[in-house]
From TrEMBL:
Free-text function comment from the UniProt entry: Essential component of the cytosolic iron-sulfur (Fe/S) protein assembly machinery. Required for the maturation of extramitochondrial Fe/S proteins.
InterPro entries, alphabetized: CIAO1/Cia1, WD40_repeat_CS, WD40_rpt
GO biological process per UniProt: iron-sulfur cluster assembly
Record protein name field: Probable cytosolic iron-sulfur protein assembly protein CIAO1 homolog
Pfam family, one: WD40
Gene Ontology cellular component terms for the protein in this record: cytosolic [4Fe-4S] assembly targeting complex
């Protein structure tokens, strides 16, 4: 798809108002079209649903009364039936029936302080959390929504900002205030998770806090962003790992710099190859590989820049999981969630 050849705009579809403090994160339900969750410093999570008639979003549920401090991160299970939320109160909650009685089915309370991020693996059998205590925890989901600690990973030297499972394999990625991305791998289904690679400044990594990680649809490329004002692209040979050849390291492809002029807090790769970034400069920017026909020499370029996408810092950008809609959700310190559409300009 030659997106660079088209004149495209990021069109604001709707503002979702309701949170009373900064909104930290948004997440689309992977199994239900048009369903979005957002979390906030107001201690709540809101579930938004698109009407099939009006095509507009309304708040269908507010999950509140369980977390006692900022809710920083949230993630849907692959089935879309469970929603995990991570809070500065030191707990991770797992919710179901959120459209009706918003029942919290499990509360995991093991981190010594703020929980910063939560992520499900591709099969929904494992949940990862990370926090200010520098640790990463992996939980195994048992019948009756019981959670059993499978591993505690302690390789980072500072606050861990985000955890993210690889989209097809049980390989876990974490990024931190220590400026590194760590990759955790288990040789077999029952083995211990070990740090098999650290991506830092010495191997073309970031020079300041790494805030966010995302993968392309195939899972053979990764994008990261940082307080150093750069977006970095990485690649690996995923086919070798999938055929049991063992761990294959990730290598640096390119660095995108000079686009944002304040901390880049969030990156997300759409299923049709568009990378979105959101930053403290209030902008959302989109990038594509303008040389996608070349296997060896990708060339990522700015597709468009949305000035003043929000009135304050953009904390999260997330593409809808389907390819066709080209919908992007964003969350900001301005208390707003916005829905955008990448569309051809007249």
């Amino acid at each position: 798809m030659k997106l660079m050849d088209k004149k495209l705009g990021l069109v604001e579809v709707q503002k979702l108002e309701g949170h009373t403090d900064r909104v930290w994160n948004v997440a689309w339900n992977p199994a239900a079209d048009g369903v979005l969750a957002s979390c906030s410093a107001d201690k709540t999570v809101r579930i938004w649903e698109q009407s099939s008639l009006t095509r507009s979003w309304t708040c269908k549920a507010v999950l509140e009364g369980t977390h006692t401090r900022t809710v920083k991160s949230l993630a849907w299970s692959p089935s879309g039936k469970l929603l995990a939320t991570a809070s500065f109160d030191g707990t991770t909650c797992v919710w179901e029936n959120f459209a009706t009685d918003s029942e919290s089915v499990s509360v995991l309370q093991v981190h010594e302080s703020e929980v910063k991020s939560v992520s499900w693996n591709a099969s929904g059998s494992l949940l990862a959390t990370c926090g200010r205590d520098k640790s990463v925890w992996i939980w195994e989901i048992l019948p009756e929504n019981e959670f059993d600690c499978a591993a505690v990973l302690t390789g980072h030297s500072e606050d861990v900002k985000m955890v993210l499972w690889h989209p097809t394999m049980d390989v876990l990625f974490s990024c931190s205030y220590d400026n590194t991305i760590k990759i955790w791998w288990s040789e077999d289904e029952y083995g211990d998770y070990n740090c098999v690679q650290t991506l830092g400044e010495l191997n073309n990594g970031h020079s300041s806090t790494v805030w966010s990680i995302s993968f392309n649809a195939a899972g053979d490329k990764m994008v990261t962003c940082s307080d150093d004002l750069t977006v970095k692209i990485w690649k690996t040979d995923i086919s070798m790992m999938q055929t049991g050849e063992g761990y294959v390291p990730w290598t640096h492809v390119c660095t995108l710099s000079g686009f944002h002029d304040r901390t880049i807090y969030s990156v997300h790769w759409s299923r049709d190859g568009v990378i979105a970034s959101g930053a403290g400069d209030d902008t959302i920017q989109l990038y594509v590989d303008s040389n996608s026909d070349s296997v060896d020499r990708p060339s990522y370029k700015l597709l468009l820049k949305k000035e003043k996408a929000h009135e304050m810092d953009v904390n999260s950008v997330q593409w809808a999981p389907d390819k066709e809609s080209r919908l992007l959700a964003s969350a900001s310190d301005d208390k707003m969630v916005k829905i955008w559409k990448l569309a051809s300009e007249p």
